[in-house]
Amino acid sequence: MESLSQVVPVLVAALVCDVGVTEPHSKKKSLIGIFDRLSAASFPTKRAVTLYLKIADAQGHYELEIRFVHLNSGNVLAKA
Predict the structure, then answer these.
(1) How far is residue 48's CA from residue 70's CA, in Å, rounded to a whole number?
(2) Which of 6, 22, 28, 50 is most deeply packed, by most CB within 10 A?
């Protein structure tokens, strides 16, 4: 395994949606049902979502952790 990169990547966009599709020929991304907030009776929940990330200046290998955090309480609702 290669060592992790020391270059700091820049998060340009992070969007949560129902479905994400990549067109095979054009490689265009289509995001369907973009959320501006998530709600559920409790977390974690079984609802499947797609997370689209656009990252710039990423060169090499990175470890990445995604956390869904409640804005008011700071509680981590889910992570992967």
Answers:
(1) 18
(2) 50
Q: What is the DSSP letter of 17?
A: E
Prediction pTM value: 0.75
Type of residue found at 19: V
Cα(76)–Cα(43) distance, integer angstroms? 9
pLDDT tens digits for range 5-14 = 888 899 999 9
Cis before 9 (ω within 30): no
Domain boundaries, the chain: 10-79
The sign of the torsion formed by the CA atoms of 11, 16, 20, 26 equals: negative
Q: Could you give the C-alpha distances from 53 to 11, 41, 42, 56, in angstroms and in order?
A: 7, 26, 25, 10
Q: How far apart are CA 55 and CA 14, in angstroms?
A: 9
Q: Which residue type occupies 7?
A: V
